[in-house]
Design goal:
- This protein has one helix and five strands, in the order E-E-E-E-H-E.
- By secondary structure, it is mainly beta.
- It has one domain: EutN/Ccml (OB fold (Dihydrolipoamide Acetyltransferase, E2P), Beta Barrel), CATH 2.40.50.220.
Length: 97
């Protein structure tokens, strides 16, 4: 298992039939391990910290008969410990110049 942060969604207008409903997400892995595209059925979004499994562990989550060619799967969203805050990006208000 690896931890990372969702940095964006990968939009695909065409997919093979075996891929079920869900999102393809760009995940930046912790410790400078790079990026990967992970399949997500949990509904996580940009900026969320996630747990990802890869390889046969990810593929085994699906039914054997309809197993899609997916090798990275989001299996959990990481909750922030109580009393801590995660830095948020500062949005510019309309009255700032």
């Amino acid at each position: 298992m690896q931890q990372g942060t969702v940095t964006g969604a990968i939009w695909s207008t065409r997919r093979i039939g075996k891929i079920p409903g869900g999102a393809l997400l760009d995940v930046e892995l912790d410790h400078g391990e790079g990026h990967l595209v992970a399949f997500d059925v949990l509904g996580t979004g940009v900026g969320e910290r996630v747990i990802v499994v890869r390889g046969s562990v990810a593929a085994d989550w699906f039914d054997e008969e309809a197993r899609p060619p997916i090798d990275a799967l989001v299996i959990g969203a990481i909750d922030e410990p109580a009393g801590t805050t995660r830095p948020r990006s500062r949005r510019r208000s309309s009255d700032e110049s």
